[in-house]
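Page header: ASSEMBLY MODEL / two components / 716 residues total.
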Amino acid sequence: MSGNRIIEQVKIDDIDLSDETYKISSGKFHSADSSENSLKRLNSNALHALADSIEKIGLINLPILKKVKDRYMIICGFKRVHAMKFINCMLQTSATVILPESAEPSQEEKISCASIAIADNAFQRQLNVMEQLRGVSLLKEYLSIEQIALSSHLIFNSRMNVAMIRMFDELSRMPESVHELIENERLAMTTALKLKECAIEEIDSFADLFLKIRTGLNKQKEIITNIIEIAAREDISIADLISSDDIISITDQDDIDENRKGNLVRSILLQRRYPNLSKAKEQFAENFKKLSMKGDIKFDPPVDFEGRDYTFSFKVSTVEELTQKVEILSRVSHNPLIGQILP
Amino acid sequence: MKIDTLFMDRHLNSSDETDYIIQKVGLQPEYVIDSRVVYDHVNASEDPVTKGKQTLYITENHGAVIKECPGTSHYTCCDYTILHTGTFCTMDCSYCILQAYFHPPVLQYFAGQKKIFNALDDLFAQKKTFRVGTGEFTDSLIWEKLSQLPSNLVKKFAGQKSSILELKTKTINIDSLKEIDHNQKTVIAWSLNTPAVIKSEERDTASLKARLHAAKRCEKWGYRLAFHFDPLVIYDGCELDYKEVIRSIFADSASGGAGILPESIVWISLGTFRFMPPLKQVIEKRFPDSRIPYGEFITGLDNKMRYFKPLRIALYQKIVSYIREYAPAVLLYFCMEDQDVWEKSLGFFPKREGALGEILDRSVTEKCNLVNL
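Prediction written out in full:
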């Protein structure tokens, strides 16, 4: 651990709120414009609540700052410092200050600051996916994946293996649109990784789509795979496919909920990816209806019509029910339509 | 692909055979005690498959020299016999299962013709018909430029009457086969495809025209021929493209064809593209422009991805009709297909286990003058 630390009184105005180098937690506190108007755009409810608490009860955990020339950058305690900005009569605060060892911070100092920034959060609560991702991204500037894995339990309060860190590293290099989807739980992490080979504009198209639909992990993967493959096979761009009438007519509808939109989009894509198979399944379903097989008898084709075995299945609990089912099957066996279905 | 690294198993004694290969490759071998050195060399590359095609390892076969073709479950197989003389290939086809079959994929030449010939003697002594091929885990004739084994095998088979050798290839490496008294006991077989597929999916292979020209030369030398339409790839307009390939086989030279005589052909096999799921990622990574993995595939009964069956049948029906126009009597068969496909495309199904093998045996018995004992 590098850097001398002292506790001192720091003017709040001397703390650089714009430098979020070591911020790993979610939520925007600062925009590029640090004027009074932009402060109003902050997540003010949460900060007001924290500000009230600090004003009345006091600051419980000191923020950790690093002295940079005559200003201070925040290492951990972004929320606390921003909250204190709201307290009108609070002009200064106690803080733990890391003093610089030299004019230019060393590699060791940077690693130390990054570790503190992550650990401060990780040892208070479980980090969410994006926080872990930002933490890995921060450390990756100075350490190898293997080095991060070795010390992960000390920094992240949980052991991460190399594969996991590699995954976070890959995700961290994806566009912001993907990060937002992950943060808002609209896209699973492993699904997002399927997009890593796509161009930026393609990823943005996917992001637009997943903002409008909601599906589970496996269906997300299927949707992405089918879009990529349809686009490749039909030699069209992913953006054009996602913005095609078929898809837009579903995603832009206001009166369908996101889950239903997800299912409808999935269905459209399956039909387009597997047109002949989809048609065969529809035809089978139509034929099944025409057979009018009452009595809860299931009639299933071979999976994807590859094998030769069709299956009739039903349950019976009395001899009477069995007789009834047998009669239905006998009637079906004389229906000319069954000759068209079975080989 | 050019071989740029040569390894040789230190346990192998130098011989005329190994000296010949080393001289032909034109590289000094690195002698290794453990094959792991070779595997590590290949695996260290970012693209081990490509590296494996550029790295030749001369070693001996520590396993069975002769084995039954693994075939597949749930679909009819032809009871082929594999003569295991080497692994992998210097050509680079996107759909090649060998990319995902070997871990890592390494170009291996199994030296020790004595061991191979002893195994063949044992096979011949059974006095049963065997259809033996060297083209299952490698291309039979990529070795023709480096080794005398292909021509020596032709001579070996010429000296018996119960079995045939099939040399299956996408090359035109046939020069050393010209002057051999093969006694019609060797079938030279070419894998064929449309020019579009050859261009996009079969890197470093001979053109269709060149393959058919080579086939005609072999026919003139008295060899029996075979053609394998495998994999058949479904794409828009593929039927007409395959029709043209078939025309090219049989039409005379005045019409721009190779003029192959139907009676020279022992069989033509048909098989649509099928693959184990892990191959898809390999294709996407090594051949990112290939569209071949994006056909309408379903999971087959043997867990291989196959085209949706009605699509397979539709293509097979067309191809069978195209072939029948020129060669109504030539033996056609399917590689790894089911009853529906057989019945709807060829009008019959060799249901009994071994039935397909017997049909193929009859064809070679007649065309290659085998003696059944």
